[in-house]
Amino acid sequence: MSAGELGTERLGERATLVHFSTAFCQPCRATRRVLSDVSALVPGVRHIEVDAESRLDLVRRLEITGTPTVLVLDPEGAVVKRASGLPRKHEVLAALALAVPEPGA
């Protein structure tokens, strides 16, 4: 998946957290906070939020069936992890530890 497909200029150096949300999704607000915190905490990780209602093309192609849905992309934009529902901070950090290369590796 490219940055352009997500409507952004760039992906994260080490990983990108792609968050599919909708305007009236209550858990999406909490998910936004968790992913923003994690991206601020882990160098090279970027958080991108995608409005599922305005990007039905991506929703269909990626088979997003509910919000919030979070995809973890590697530096090249490949999906390495996928989760639905409200994530906990430690779960996102664990997913990144498994999915993201260490700096200099």
Feature tags:
105 residues; 3 helices; alpha+beta; 4 strands; four-stranded mixed β-sheet
Question: Helix and strand layout, with pairings?
Answer:
Layout: E1 15-21, H1 26-41, E2 45-51, H2 56-61, E3 69-73, E4 79-84, H3 89-99
Parallel strand pairs: 1-2
Antiparallel strand pairs: 1-3, 3-4
Give a brief rundown of this model.
31% of the residues lie in helices and 24% in strands.
Total strand segments:
4
User: N-to-C SSE series?
Assistant: EHEHEEH
Give the termini distance in whole angstroms: 22 Å
Secondary structure: helix percent: 25-40%
Shape assignment: globular
Which strands sit side by side, in order, in the main sheet? 2-1-3-4
Structure classification: alpha+beta
> Helical segment tally?
3
User: Which runs of at least 5 residues are low in confidence (pLDDT < 50)?
Assistant: none
Give an overview in words.
The structure is a single chain. This protein is an alpha+beta fold and 105 residues long. It has helices at 26-41, 56-61, 89-99; strands at residues 15-21, 45-51, 69-73, 79-84. The chain has a four-stranded mixed β-sheet with strand order 2-1-3-4, with helices on one face. Helix 1 links the parallel strand 1 (15-21) and strand 2 (45-51). The two termini are 22 Å apart. The model has no long low-confidence stretch (mean pLDDT 91).
